[in-house]
Structures are given as structure tokens and as C-alpha cells.
């Protein structure tokens, strides 16, 4: 059977917490010096951050029950960031940021589900031969 885990779950968990903290800090500090110069750059940042967070959290705990819990937890984290940004003078909050968060989460989960489907199919075919 193929094994594709690069790191152990505990390491992924630590990477997730570090990344979540970094995302939160970047979400509340002034972003003038790190702004990308195109429309919807902020949405791309949200999408990318939550795609990566979803990957790390998924690798830290990978059962279907955990995947659903992780998706909800990440969504709540995104909502929390937007609430905090409402009270930070130099930041603004947007429902569209939450949509971008959801998009990053769902794209990762969809791609991971496809990967698992094809990987399990290949394993069944190998075992059948």
C-alpha cells in the first residue's frame, strides 16, 4: 500500500497552529506594505490562506468526521477574523472575505476527496491483480 505522509500528524498540527497564528497576525496588522496591486488581491490571500490551513488541519486529523469538524472550525476562524477586523481601525471586514475562505476550504476538500477516490480505486485494482 502506498504511503504519502511526509510528516507525522503532530508535526502537521504544530504547522497548522503556527500558520493559523501567522494568518491572524497578518489579518490584523496594517497591510499597506504588503498589498498586492490588483483587484481582489485580498480575496486571493484569503482563499490561499484557508486552502493551506485546510491542508494542514486535514493532515493533522484525516477521518471524515474530523474533516467536517475541521471545515466548520476553519469557517468559524474566518468569521472570527472578520469580526476582529471590524474593530481594527486600519482594517475592514467583508462578507466576501468569508466567501473566499469558504472557497479555499472547499477547493482543498474537493481536491483531496478526488485524490482519495482515485488512490483507493488504484489500490483496489492493484489488489485485484
- C-alpha termini separation: 14 Å
Structural class: mainly alpha
Major sheet:
none
The Rg value, from CA coordinates, equals: 17 Å
How many β-strand stretches? Answer: 0
**Multimeric organization:** single chain
**Helical residue percent?**
over 70%
Looking at the structure, what is the overall shape?
Answer: elongated
Mean of all residue-level pLDDT scores: 86
> So how many helices?
4
Unreliable stretches, pLDDT < 50, 5 or more residues? none
β-strand percent reads under 5%
Order of helices and strands: HHHH
Describe the overall structure.
With 129 residues, this protein is mostly helical. It has a domain at 45-129. Helix content is 75%, strand content 0%. The longest helix has 34 residues, at 95-128. The protein is elongated, with a radius of gyration of 17 Å. It starts with 8 loop residues before the first helix and ends with a helix. The relative contact order is 0.14. The mean pLDDT is 86.
Short description:
The chain is mainly alpha-helical and 129 residues long.
Q: What is the element layout, followed by pairings?
A:
Layout: H1 9-28, H2 41-60, H3 64-86, H4 95-128
Helix pairs in contact: 1-2, 2-3, 2-4, 3-4
Identify the notable features of this structure and list them briefly.
mainly alpha, 4 helices
Amino acid at each position: 500500500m502506498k504511503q504519502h505522509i511526509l510528516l507525522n500528524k503532530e508535526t502537521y498540527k504544530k504547522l497548522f497552529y503556527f500558520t493559523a497564528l501567522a494568518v491572524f497576525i497578518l489579518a490584523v496588522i496594517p497591510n499597506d506594505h504588503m498589498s498586492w496591486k490588483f483587484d481582489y488581491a485580498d480575496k486571493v490571500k484569503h482563499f490561499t490562506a484557508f486552502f493551506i490551513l485546510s491542508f494542514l488541519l486535514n493532515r493533522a486529523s484525516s477521518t471524515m468526521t474530523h474533516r467536517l469538524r475541521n471545515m466548520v472550525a476553519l469557517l468559524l476562524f474566518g468569521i472570527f477574523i472578520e469580526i476582529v477586523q471590524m474593530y481594527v481601525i486600519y482594517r475592514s471586514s467583508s462578507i466576501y472575505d468569508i466567501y473566499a475562505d469558504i472557497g479555499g476550504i472547499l477547493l482543498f476538500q474537493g481536491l483531496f476527496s478526488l485524490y482519495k477516490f482515485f488512490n483507493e480505486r488504484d489500490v483496489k485494482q492493484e489488489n485485484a491483480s
